## 1
Amino acid sequence: GAVVSQHPSWVICKSGTSVKIECRSLDFQATTMFWYRQFPKQSLMLMATSNEGSKATYEQGVEKDKFLINHASLTLSTLTVTSAHPEDSSFYICSARSELAGVYEQYFGPGTRLTVT
Amino acid sequence: GEDVEQSLFLSVREGDSSVINCTYTDSSSTYLYWYKQEPGAGLQLLTYIFSNMDMKQDQRLTVLLNKKDKHLSLRIADTQTGDSAIYFCAESIQGGKLIFGQGTELSVKP
């Protein structure tokens, strides 16, 4: 149980184009999902908290117009990188929060490797 | 602000025990987590400990929590080559967010 998928697993796009990444909780409902960014050999940096049915909450320094987040259902959140540039190349990981018997656990997707040329 | 610190590297021999250490700053953290990340993959939840616990054991994994010193450790007994990965500790803060350490790269030599 508690499986989170991401699609695509990797994508290469040209500078100036937009890319959409999907995050799905496959066997549980998640009112809250999180989007992280990870640079090589570094830790995960939280970008935003995605809440079903409401606007995402962005961390300081993250451009909300650049990284559009939509949490349309209890099992799907999407991250769209708009007008991508080479500096947006990174590993993007989502997580979905599950609550069971009062215990919160976060389950992570396998990540999406974005390369902007 | 919140901060989580880990040592960056640990090298052990197969069969030995590995101990990965972590310190955190937010004393109000409810849960503390250990995740494993293999190359090019996402994070796998290994275990977690509630802040009112001192120890939790799950098969080869033992988590120790010293809340007074804000120190968390993960012990892996009988470490295998398949345990080679990066291990992240994380503390939960308000809103369910996780603050991650830098990750400890565990290298297991045969």
## 2
Amino acid sequence: KQEVTQIPAALSVPEGENLVLNCSFTDSAIYNLQWFRQDPGKGLTSLLLIQSSQREQTSGRLNASLDKSSGRSTLYIAASQPGDSATYLCARGAAGNKLTFGGGTRVLVKP
Amino acid sequence: DTGVSQNPRHKITKRGQNVTFRCDPISEHNRLYWYRQTLGQGPEFLTYFQNEAQLEKSRLLSDRFSAERPKGSFSTLEIQRTEQGDSAMYLCASSDYQLAGGLGETQYFGPGTRLLVL
């Protein structure tokens, strides 16, 4: 079974600290690894997409790495802000770009 | 580009009733996906279309579920004889698949339809 796991399920940090969110997956034959943000009761917003041939992607304060050999991806958010409070989901992309999601990490950034 | 829209946003129904949800993707996006998300969990893949062709259905999609994308634009997801276990958020996403574009493309999600079956 292809599984995606995110630990911890919840994380609380003071404003200004860097956030490190972890994602692990069981099948190294992935097409891509995607990170999304979800605000309560809302849909998902794409943050970063890392193709299987890539090691990392960056966008502003966000940086995501991909290590297929160990089945891990990490999302770094620099200098966290209260507006970064949300649930962050990683997803493994397979054929057809069908996504298998982890359970998410709920992040709270305290002012 | 107005983004992916879904209607209705909320639906409350009684067990045994049929419900239908609509998804309007970003115009000219050729792929459309349906996912289901229960509280505290990540979304689960249900099915996807490339243009009007339904290319894959999850085993989660029982015989009571049917999805269509008749003209390769909007899509509908129908649930017949709803059960309490169908209560969830139903999410639609679309993407622009290019054959030579590599391994995957960004999926753009709608706001979801929250279904409550009483």
## 3
Amino acid sequence: DAGITQSPRHKVTETGTPVTLRCHQTENHRYMYWYRQDPGHGLRLIHYSYGVKDTDKGEVSDGYSVSRSKTEDFLLTLESATSSQTSVYFCAISESGYQETQYFGPGTRLLVL
Amino acid sequence: EDKVVQSPLSLVVHEGDTVTLNCSYEVTNFRSLLWYKQEKKAPTFLFMLTSSGIEKKSGRLSSILDKKELFSILNITATQTGDSAVYLCAVFYGQNFVFGPGTRLSVLP
């Protein structure tokens, strides 16, 4: 299995509070991605990174920000969590972008009350 | 609009049956199509397809891409209960990457 960890694995928070999810990889892959997965919607890309300090928006980026200060870490922040952000969040990595397979982390289950 | 459509969305079969899962897409600047298997955890990679007509095979699973008709199929022969999962199709196009909704396969003993 690719060396990808996510923390926390489960989180319950209240509406309006900030939340940061962490993705850590030991593969030294250039690309990292954040997805959310919801019933009826499949996996949807939130943001991705193609290098340290290089990030771009995905399909559902509103309400989320990301940062990547080191190759191995990609942070996803919900500045002010809303109930619509209750979801399972997956981090993924790939070596060099679209021509490479993405390997997924174990996921973080987030509940916003 | 739906860029990646999978069918059926749900399928129930018995062990030993053969199943065919479909993925059709409508995108510009297509680059690759990937199949993933997802059980009660993270998706795991099955196949990546970039060229038409070349079958990828791994054990009882195989997949092929038709870039002219814009679809791919995933075949599973002699299904086992361990094949029960959601099968996800994803397409890279331009600088974008989009997943289909998945097909939930249930294999009964």
